[in-house]
Design a protein that fits this description.
Aspartate Aminotransferase, domain 2; 14 strands; four-stranded mixed β-sheet; 13 helices; alpha/beta; Aspartate Aminotransferase, domain 1; globular
């Protein structure tokens, strides 16, 4: 299949990993040779319940027997979407009540930007250096990595960068600012956590000038950091919450949530202020509902912090400078991109899947399913230790 894959399917890099997938189950992906690969990537944080979780599969199959797409978003009452948004509202703090379902996190970012500009009557959007919010034109406009943006310009006007965790830059939030958009934990930058009550201070500055705070929870959301959403660690409630990835248990979905009063602005003056054909698709919504129930009704969320502790205990090696992140959103920091890449590729050869981060080449991503077992964590960390010993020996020989 590889030749056809490279010829007919558009690529994102010159050298994709190209593993030929046969099937996946639980914490494992199997290639067409029958080899099992322990998955510490989870589809880049998307497969929150692992692969083909029974609750998700059952919900999808049940909905398939009822109806698929029947109408563009927002016109017909479809139970899976309604039940999901209602349950989500019950799990969120006020005033986060009303949710718009879309097809991806990036589309949700675009919707959130539109909502902020509509609600405030202002145009300026502030975003963080090294931020990543997706690749649609709106999301790209608030990406904090100029060399990735420049080839596709001009982008949305009046979008400006500030430094994440910089109190000095908070003075840039003024009465011209429609919104500040931040990842709760910066993902592509290297799993950077907010420090010194940074998010509270951002929210306070926004409130003082009538700007909105948009929190991007596309990656930290749905239990990955040990709370349902990452912002719940930091004593702040966003004005607009954006989600995706782990929300669908492996199905493609995104959403943004705000107060009902604010969300009503998208329905009039003009009507169809935001519209999507397939947002709220009943099969996808059924998967999202099953995922949300599974995450919130069991003990997966508290287990996440215990699993983080186990990872930190097991990952001790001279090649590891530090481990960044929270919960099961972790990044092993090495001294160079070369070492990180060698470890990732060697681990894949030994049956463990790891991955890179977008803007921090020294980092090794560890974002396994929330359902990963202690035994699987120990198995994967043992492979990492073996590979690091192998890489360190090579490095010492060259030195």
């Amino acid at each position: 299949m590889k030749d056809d894959f490279l010829k007919y399917q558009a690529q994102t890099t010159p050298h994709p990993l190209g593993m030929e997938v046969s099937h996946a189950e639980g914490s494992y992906i199997y290639d067409t040779s029958g080899k099992a690969h322990l998955d510490f990537i989870a589809g880049v944080s998307a497969c929150s319940l692992g692969h083909r979780h029974p609750a998700v599969v059952s919900a999808v199959k049940e909905q398939l027997d009822k109806y698929l797409h029947v109408m563009v978003y927002g016109e017909y009452i479809q139970e899976p979407a309604l039940q999901f948004t209602k349950l989500l509202s019950e799990k969120l703090p006020d005033p986060l009540e009303t949710t718009y379902l879309v097809n991806s996190g990036a589309e949700a970012i675009d919707g959130a930007i539109k909502l902020a500009r509509r609600a405030t009557g202002r145009s300026e959007i502030l975003y963080a250096e090294n931020a990543y919010h997706g690749n649609t034109y709106g999301a790209l406009s608030v990406m904090g990595h100029e060399e990735r943006k420049t080839p596709f310009g001009p982008l949305l006007p009046d979008c400006h960068a500030i430094r994440f965790n910089s109190e000095k830059d908070l003075d840039r939030i003024t009465n011209k600012t429609a919104a500040v958009i931040l990842e709760t934990i910066q993902g592509g930058a290297g799993f950077i956590l907010p420090e010194s009550n940074y998010l509270e201070k951002v929210k306070s500055h926004c409130e003082a000038v009538g700007a909105l705070l948009i929190m991007d929870e596309i990656q930290p959301g749905f239990g990955r950091t040990g709370t349902l959403f990452g912002f719940q660690h930091f004593d702040v409630v966003p004005d607009i919450l954006v989600m995706g990835k782990g929300m669908g248990g492996g199905m493609p979905v995104g959403a943004f949530t705000s107060s009902r009063e604010r969300m009503l602005l998208l329905s009039d003056n003009p009507k169809l202020g935001h519209i999507t054909t397939f947002g709220g698709n009943p099969v996808i919504a059924a998967a999202a509902l099953a995922t949300l129930k599974e995450i919130t009704e069991g003990d997966l969320i508290p287990q996440t912090l215990q699993k983080e502790k186990l990872f930190r205990e097991l990952l001790q090696h001279e090649l590891i400078g530090e481990i960044r992140g929270k919960g099961l959103m972790l990044a092993i920091m090495t001294e160079s991109a070369l070492i990180a890449t060698e470890i990732i590729l060697e681990c894949q050869g030994r049956g463990l899947l790891l991955f890179w981060l977008l803007f921090e080449p020294r980092a090794i991503r560890i974002t396994p399913p929330l359902t990963i077992s202690e035994e699987e964590i120990r198995k994967g960390c043992a492979i990492i230790a073996e590979v690091m010993d192998f890489v360190a020996q090579k490095k010492n020989k060259h030195n």
